Amino acid sequence: MTKIAIFVANKSEDIEVVVPIDIWRRAGFIVKLISVEKKKNLVLSHGTKISCDEILANENISKYNAIYLPGGVGHLKFNDTDAQRLINFLKKEGKNKKITFMAMCAAVEVFGGLGLLTNTKATCYPSYQKTFESTYVDKDVVVDKNFITGKAPGATISFALSAVAHISNKKQLAKQIANDIFYSGKIN
Predict the structure, then answer these.
(1) Residues whose CB is less than 8 angstroms from the CB of residue 21 and which lie 6 or more positions away in sequence, other chains included
(2) Gap between the terminal Cα atoms of the chain
(3) How far is the C-alpha of 141 from the C-alpha of 2, rounded, in Å?
(4) Number of neighbours of residue 42 by Cβ within 10 angstroms
(5) Contacts of 143 (CB under 8 A, 6+ apart)
(6) Predicted TM-score (pTM) above 0.90
(7) Using CA atoms, how far apart are residues 173 and 104, in angstroms rounded to an integer?
(8) Taking the mean position of all CA atoms in its chain, how far away is CA 90?
(9) What is the Cα–Cα distance from 188 to 185, expressed in whole angstroms?
């Protein structure tokens, strides 16, 4: 069973939080929202209020087989000071091929800054690729090894469906969800 941990902070990008939750739950994945703040109730970058399932301090990250970091200004909280347990987990497990690591937009720089994208192609919001310049690819969604990265909010549906195809190893499942929501864009 696929279990995805979505790490969220105040000012995370709304669409990059909400859309993947919806699509991944349609795929039958277990999706949990984990706040890196000291509280469960957060406000996203454009005013959407959400209630997370748990706060990082109380969560066992190792029970998940997929980790997702949405972008937005909130990604700045994914650091040693505010999210020490997350960063320690990424440093320790970042090369674990059994875990899928996903990030959108500006949050991809977290993986890049930790050196996790060395020899791995990835994309992100333009101007955030400095931490992994040599493997940056200017595409909406890049799937390479066990990393899935998305460029910007406009690529969120394609990103979430590409994750379904990659994680489940069933591209047909992703295509069925796309058909159900009348999405005709690309699935990697």
Answers:
(1) 6, 31, 33
(2) 22
(3) 21
(4) 21
(5) 162, 166, 188
(6) yes
(7) 22
(8) 13
(9) 10
Contact 54, 85 (CB under 8 A): no
Model confidence over 137-177: pLDDT tens digits? 999 999 999 999 999 999 999 999 999 999 999 999 999 99
pLDDT at position 133 over 90: no
SS3 72: coil
Total residue length of the chain: 188
Q: Write the CB contacts of 182 (distance below 8 Å, at least 6 apart in sequence).
A: none
Q: What is the pLDDT of residues 70-122, one digit of tens each?
A: 999 999 999 989 999 999 999 999 999 999 999 999 999 999 999 999 999 99
Cα distance between residue 109 and residue 150, in whole Å: 11
pLDDT of residue 169: 92
Neighbours of 21 (CB within 10 A): 19
User: Which string of b and e fits 88-118 if b means at least 16 CB within 10 Å?
Assistant: ebbeebbeeeebbbbbbbbbbbbbbbeebbe
Q: What is the DSSP letter of 93?
A: H
Q: State the number of CA atoms in the 13 A half-sphere of 29 facing the CB.
A: 32
Residue at 179: amino acid letter: N
